[in-house]
Amino acid sequence: MGEKVIDNIVITIDCGTKGIRGILFDDYGNELGKSEIIYDGYYSKNQHWKEAPPLMFWNGLVGVIQKIRENYPKLFNKIQGMNIACQRDIITVVDETGEPLRDFISWLDRRTLEKPLKHPWPYELLFKAVGFSDFAKSFSVNAHAHWIKVYEPEIWEKADKLVFLSTYLLTKLTGKIMDSRSATTGHVPFDYKRKEWCGRYDVKSIVLQIEPEKRYELVGSCEIIGHLTASAAALTGLPVGLPVVSSGSDKGCETLGVGAITPNTAGVSLGTQATVQVTTTKYVELFPFYPAFPAVQGDSYNPEITIYHGFWMVDWYIDEFLGHLDPGLIFSLLEDYLIDTKTGADGLIHQPYWGREAYRPEARGSLVGFREGHNKKHIYRAIIEGLGFGLLEGIERIESKTNTPIESIGLTGGGSRSDGVAQIMADIFNRPVHRVQTNETTGLGGAMATFVGLGRFQSVKDAGDCMVRKSKTFKPDAIQAQKYTEIYNKIYKRLYRRLKPLYKKI
Questions:
Q1: Where does a domain end: 245, 276, 293?
Q2: Alpha helices per DSSP H over 159-311
Q3: Same structural domain for residues 71 and 197?
Q4: Whether the Cβ atoms of residue 317 and residue 218 lie closer than 8 Å to each other
Q5: Pair 211, 77 in one domain
């Protein structure tokens, strides 16, 4: 038999927190090749700050495409389009040509203003009347754009646009300062329900004071946002005029990639941030004043619960307890830890709020229940179980607000590669969880959007039917699920309320 002919190929650039990947997909969802570059340019001028030079990301993008060209030359020459899916809420300001005027401030950066920007007094009265004052203060002091505006006024004055990382990279590729509505997620005055920039007198424009002229042009997802410029083509080796299709944020694409296209299937990301999302045509706010994000599908939204420090906690654990070991041994060792310990970690309960939780700003992380028999194995299991309990809270919240039961869950992110972790999640959620045919679910979701934009599919649903396949399903064990239900209801859910007064004093 002859070699299978593959004609329809696109490339997704998945620009994450730790590194950047280029991934090739065909229109049946097959991952054909990929390359990766790990970032090494982050820096901190002060404690809890995190910045990065723009060229770290751009050179990374060029580098992964060049690696694809070198390693998969035949496939590379068949690329029909590309998209970018980026980490969210990482910002800078640019001049009229799209060139940055300062380095990017990461979403991990925890700098704040000493006090919020002033609002006109009628709005102050309104905020007090509707109980919005604390939220307005939190949004104002935590907005990195405000930090630039206050502490770097000369740069702010020169700036033509405030942009996200995805906007910057799309500008470098196409020459247009534009981005998709689905990628517009962060501390900006954006109306998430209407999927448009807020008007000058909208409450969000009063709280997040970014002038209308500094806001970039919006386009829908699954649309050709532009074409590759000659300069970008010369650097990457891709052809001049290659269509660049708008997709969405990394989380939005990830949700598509695990098949969570309807509200009864959730996408759970076990990544640096741990999140649970669904896709629904109904706009719902899971908590007052916290929006549902625009989905890659133009008529839909992604309500989301986030655990800010998700599987970052596993990285912390490895650094603190296993940093002396050969990195190649750590994955199997952690799997053994889950086998060697019992459900509930012998009474050790972890609350995974290690700071900057949007819905619980005063919360801190805690490990409760230590006794002399506990060791580092129990701590690891408690971390995993605590993340599972926190995500289960999110699942229940989404179900209550959408009035739709979540029947199945697609797992993604680095933590999902562990069979032990996946089974624990199935048992805690008491629902089947699945992985799909590729670990590169953000890339897959971006490829789906690209093929829709190129006209290969009429809709994201049609793309999902053809491109997403379950590869392994983990069903809950009835006995373990019952144990977890008791721990969750009798202990975990009561912890936050009991500890909240102490958190406020820390």
A1: 245
A2: 165-174, 203-207, 230-236, 250-257
A3: yes
A4: no
A5: yes
Q: What is the pLDDT at residue 3?
A: 56
Domain around 70? 9-245
Phi and psi based region of residue 98 (left: phi greater than 0; alpha: psi -120 to 50; beta: remaining): left
CATH assignment of the domain containing 207: 3.30.420.40
Q: Are 450 and 245 in contact (CB under 8 A)?
A: yes
pLDDT digits (tens, 9 = 90+) for 432-458: 999 999 999 999 999 999 999 999 999
What is the distance between the alpha carbons of residues 408 and 265, in angstroms, rounded to a whole number? 5
For residue 290, the model assigns a pLDDT of: 86
Instruction: With a cut of 60, say whether residue 155 has pLDDT above it.
Output: yes
Residue 359 pLDDT grade (very low, low, confident, very high; cuts 50, 70, 90): confident
Q: Are 257 and 443 in contact (CB under 8 A)?
A: yes
Together in a domain, 109 and 208: yes
- Calculate mean pLDDT across residues 354-361: 74
Q: Is residue 89 part of a domain?
A: yes
What are the residues facing 411 on neighbouring strands? 268
> Pick from 217, 245, 273: which residue ends a domain?
245
Q: Tokens 């990394």, residue?
A: 250
Inside any domain, residue 304: no
Q: Among 148, 123, 122, 151, which residue's Cα sits nearest to residue 136?
A: 123
Within-domain flag for 76: yes
Q: Which two tokens stand for residue 408?
A: 């199945």
Please tell me the total count of domains within the chain.
Answer: 2
Amino acid at 400: S
Q: Write out the H or E segment, with its range, that includes residue 428.
A: helix 419-429
Give the C-alpha separation, 373 to 379, whole Å: 11
Cite the DSSP H helix spans in 131-224: 133-142, 144-151, 153-158, 165-174, 203-207
Residue listed under structure tokens 């060049």? 66
Residue 139 lies in a domain: yes
Same domain, yes or no: 230 and 340: no
Q: What pLDDT, on a 0 to 100 scale, did the predictor assign at position 506?
A: 83
Tell me the C-alpha to C-alpha distance, in Å, between residue 398 and each of 264, 265, 283, 291, 432.
10, 11, 12, 13, 17
Q: Are strands 408-412 and 265-270 parallel, antiparallel or unpaired?
A: parallel
For residue range 427-437, list pLDDT tens digits in order: 999 999 999 99
Co-location of 338 and 486 in the same domain:
yes
